[in-house]
Amino acid sequence: MSVDQNRSRVIGGVIVMCGLILVIRLFYLQVVSDTYAQKSDRISKRIVTEYPDRGLITDRHGKLIVFNADAYDLTVSMPMYSRSFDTTTFCTLLRITPEEFVQMMGKAKKTAYNGKAVFKKNLTTPEFARIQEGIYQFRDFQIETHSDRKYSMAIAAHTLGYVAEISKNELERDASEYYDAGEYIGKSGLEQFYEEQLRGIKGRQHYMVNNIGQIKERVNGGKDDIRAFPGMPMEISMDAALQAYGEELMQGKTGSIVAIEPSTGEILAMVTSPGYDPNDFAIKNLSHNYPKLAVDPSKPLLNRAVAAQYPPGSVFKLIMALIGLEEGVLTENTHFSCHGGFHKGSLTVRCHPHPGFPDLKYSIQTSCNAYYCNAFREILHQDKFKNIEEGYNNWRNYLVNFGLGSRLGVDINQEQGGNVPTAQYFHKIHGENSWSYIRIISLSIGQGELLLTPLQMANVAAIIANRGYFFTPHFARLIDGKNTIPEQFKTKHQTGVSDYNFATVVDAMAAVFSGGTAAGARIPGIEMCGKTGTVQNPHGENHSMFIAFAPRDNPKIAIATVVENAGYGSTYAAPISALMMEKYLRPDTTSSRMDLYNRMTGKTATHTTAHQADTSHGAGE
Questions:
Q1: What's the CA gap between 38 and 21, in Å, rounded?
Q2: CA-to-CA distance for 567 and 545, rounded, in angstroms?
């Protein structure tokens, strides 16, 4: 065989081998691999996410409070798949500079998640209209429509909460894999707690597009599309009119109001002051308003109703009385002397002037400090206890059963649990079992280390209104038209105090309005029961506190009011509470105490305080 023949065979073999390789590669690409199919689909098809409307929120009477309005974001695929990108035309369309484009794209790359990022969020309506006309030229960019929240009344911002763009940390924690980058999620309040119910179900629409990215038709006639379903509507327990009234009464003050329906635990109103307009935190306004409110020294973002913690002061004497009655160390006829206060050796706990030998009912009516210092001794140092720790733990267990010392579990965020110190805490300070009631006497009158939130105080009022039990306070009433609220809000909690022991305390609370420290806040025709509190504040004027319920029999509303740096409980907290109870029980009538209303809202020049008006009754709180 000649050299030329060998060369021809080698060349022929190479050609055949190359042909085989090409055929095998072509078979792999066309039959086995879907790479080119995917690329073809990416170029010729577009999947558009259809975002559902969030669920509407109404008050207990069906009044619409939260609804939806369209908002628009410009998103970008990451990495960008366009072969060429006309930056100049794109910047002209968006009316931004090339430098701004580089800055915005850099931010988008840093925040990208699962192949998508927000390039420009919260487009205005004119921006949306202008960009929509030309965005088809840039196949990696897409306008997405989602719901922004709107509010029919400028009330209850902390309760309702707000919606904002999901963070990267939240995306990584999203076990449901529901969210993509740039989407929105409830960040606080009811929007956060009931996010799963309110967010709805996203839809998917599949489109064919041409070579310049313009949508031409639905894929498969729309048979592959997934329909979006709106979020579930919620009816919440709030009375919008009562909430607005409470916010009016607290205008210019610092503090909070919590009102509860005792028989269900439904929260009728939750006011925190100072506050803000919920529309300030709509998606389009959030980036402008949040930074300003976050640094405001008055702390308008703090929900004082659930997050502020105060010594309860004399309102705590109601619990002391109930524990003493249940333990059998007090009866309605138990008397203790009070000569200007409680005296033990060098210790004096001062008390305001009143007749010097009160029984239990009169001790509540006049808020006698000495009475409850003595009652504390009787409760802790019973013969059945072998040491102070055992007596103290028995007393503390009652407080825990009243929902104190830990979070109640309300369905909004920011809740704090207050503080009920343990026996171990006092062991560390005073030595194990080497202390007595004298060393912790301030607890007996609601001072010292004891801390409660306004929500817990209102819940105490609800417990007394119910004569011994409570439901965890909550806002959810109906979800999607059904009573499908979480089970923990349907569970009755018992305090361990017998119902018959509440009779004397309720009588005394009624006397607080008829001839005691809250007589100046009495509302004609409504039998109210309450207790004032004046809480020492080392940083300024005392805090004004009050808890109450009404009517006395078959109560419909229980309430707690705290007005910081306002002095006596009878000065502001009691009148505000009385006006709120009247508003709820008589919603369609003008207040019979316009003098109180005018003074609370500053609409009159007459500023005679409730405490001054009550001096004839011996009021001290």
A1: 23
A2: 9
Instruction: Determine the length of the chain.
Output: 621
Distance CA 1, CA 540 (A): 115
Helix (H) or strand (E) run with residue 375 in it:
helix 369-380
Residues ≥6 apart with Cβ < 8 Å to 285: 279
Q: Are 144 and 51 in contact (CB under 8 A)?
A: yes
487 token code pair = 């089970």
Residues 287 and 165 in one domain: no
Q: Is residue 433 exposed (0-12), middle (13-18) or buried (19+ Cβ within 10 Å)?
A: middle
Same domain? 482 vs 524:
yes
CA distance 146 to 573: 43
Task: Give the list of residues 6+ apart from residue 25 with CB closer than 8 angstroms, or none.
Answer: none
Domain shared by 282 and 176, yes or no: no
The first and second tokens of residue 174, run together, are 């999203």
Residues 532, 367: contact at Cβ < 8 Å? yes
Our measurement of the distance from residue 36's CA atom to the centroid of its chain's CA atoms, rounded to an integer in Å, reads 51
Burial of residue 386 (number of CB atoms within 10 Å: 0-12, 13-18, 19+): exposed
Specify whether 88 is located in the same domain as 187.
yes
Residues 168 and 248 in one domain: no
Residue 159 belongs to domain with CATH number = 3.90.1310.10
The pLDDT assigned to 134 comes to 85
162 inside domain: yes
For tokens 């310049």, the residue is 212
Contact 246, 265 (CB under 8 A): no
- Crossing angle (nearest 10°) for helices 240-249 and 594-601: 60
Residue 580 is encoded by which pair of tokens? Answer: 């709120």
391 within some domain: yes
Residue 180 inside a domain? The answer is yes
Average pLDDT in the chain: 87
Give the separation between CA 363 and CA 376, rounded to whole angstroms.
14
Distance CA 155, CA 64 (A): 12
The amino acid present at 290, given as its one-letter code, is Y
- Edge-first strand order for the sheet with 557-563 is 266-273, 255-261, 557-563, 543-550, 529-535
Query: What does the DSSP assignment read for 75-139?
Result: EEESS---S---HHHHHHHHT--HHHHHHHHHHHHHH-BTTEEEEEEEE-HHHHHHHHHHGGG-T
- H helices of 553-613, in order, are 573-585, 594-601, 610-613
pLDDT for position 228: 86
Indicate the Cα dihedral angle 98, 99, 104, 109, nearest 10°. 90
147 vs 276, higher pLDDT: 276
Are residues 374 and 516 both part of a single domain?
yes
Question: Both ends of the chain: CA-CA distance in Å?
Answer: 124
pLDDT in tens, 12-34: 666 767 667 776 666 655 555 55
- What span, in angstroms and rounded, lies between the C-alpha atoms of 404 and 453? 9
Q: How confident is the model at residue 613 (pLDDT cuts 50, 70, 90)?
A: very low
Inside any domain, residue 4 = no
Count up the domains in the chain and report the number.
Answer: 2
φ, ψ dihedrals at 191, nearest 5°: -60, -35
